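Worked example 2:
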Amino acid sequence: MARHLKKLLCFVLVVMMLVGCTPTSSPTTEPTEPDELALLEERLAQYAQLGTSPDDNYRTWYEIFVYSFCDSNGDGIGDLQGVISKLDYLEELGINGIWLMPIHPSNSYHKYDVNDYYGIDPQYGTMEDFDALMAECEKRDIHVILDLVVNHSGYNNTWFTQACEYIRGLDAGELGNVEDCKYFGYYNFATEAKTGYSKVSGSKNYYYECQFSTAMPDLNWASEDMRQDVKAVMEFWLNKGVAGFRVDAAKEFYTGAVSKNVEVLNWLQQTATSIKPDAYMVAEVWENSHVIISSYYESGFTSIFNYPFGNSDGKLVKVVNGRGNSSMVNSWATALQTANKAYSENNPNYIDAPFLSNHDVGRIYGFVSGDELRIKMAAAMNIFMSGSVFIYYGEEIGMPGSGNDPSKRAPMYWNAERNNGTTNLPPECSLPDVGYPMGSLVEQQQNASSVYNYYREAIAIRNALPVISHGAITAETALNVGCVSAMRKTWNDEECIILMNIDDDTAGAKVDLSAYADWKLVATLSANGESVAMDGTTLNMPAYGVAVLVPSK
């Protein structure tokens, strides 16, 4: 054991240097006594008795980068069969929705340069594998959404290659009017060099728009023919059983033209629901709250990722890192109330889409300097937000990841032996090809106090009380004591009150509930092992403790 700990500590130092942070609390990876794990399972069973989530689009989604998730055939690259092999794991975690990052044929490891919107990349498997995945997900009531990458296509997509072939024909004087080739209209071409444009290979004076990369030519959303092809792609996959789509780069359809982007989102939403009335659509709009509220939710789009609350500079991380600052902590519930009101006014049918991190940003581990208690607190804050919550693969075990994009998409750390489907590193990933400071999944499964088991409890509570995901939010400021932030959620005839002590003060907080005699404590979360418990009419809340109250029946 001493030898193991020495190796673990050495590795922690290496990774800390790479991610630029220092751990401020010791990770709980040591196995706990069997009775502690048994007590955990008892609590999970009790939560399950409280209720179940309805079969709708308010789900706990899990983002999977297939390349780095699970390798089923030993080639070092994750695949769809690997995802199938981990569905029981996801079900145990409490996940009921999966977002698959692009799975289509592509020239890159990340596959955001789609060459065939109707195919499966051979690295990931076959269409038969995809069909098998959908069938297994249906058995478990796990919905699946796909990345819809239609701001641009891949350079080798047939649409683009045919358009370029037509241009080369024009240069040779072999073809007539450009309207003879509809694919020419699918992209933005110019006969002079412009910012964000690149020369068409083999042409004399034609350039194509490619704002992200020369390998990703931008699509022209003014083309009705192109829109009809996008509709056909959506129809194909919706008929395959997918629940909807995550729309990539949704504010870049027309660079800098918000109103035009809003129109495209409206078209995508209407098109999806015309094919599948309950299709779930969520858009990547990396913008501030004012633009999202005033413009993008007016598109009628179901969900827009909540960037003002997520990521390293979002409200959630600022609050969890502001521990001890009561005014900042108390503002948490008020900020949620304000956002909920503003979003719903512009789109009454919106479903919020909160997240901590994703494949484009660093992970929560780095945002909180490796502090396990704050990792747990951030998880609860995210999971207990209203809407469809998104969890990036590996966050449930506190994986690090920062720097270049491949380093944010490192292999899922299944076990210390790296033999249970663990993949190779993505190309140019700068993280060490070893484990992670919080320990592997297998190690964390054996510890009742691990980050993994904390996630299990938080998700179990969320799934058992639909009012948490569906509820409209009101700040319950009467219960704010010290660094406790309290909110009330209301949905149909259900209510709950959620209290969070977002503070590292070991003295904890004492909340007077004498005015809430008609409420009862039904669920708690402890980040540090100290109990959240009632003492008469006083609720004792340790540092980073969470409590959920519901009306007494």
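DSSP finds 17 helices and 18 strands in the chain. The longest strand covers residues 484-491.
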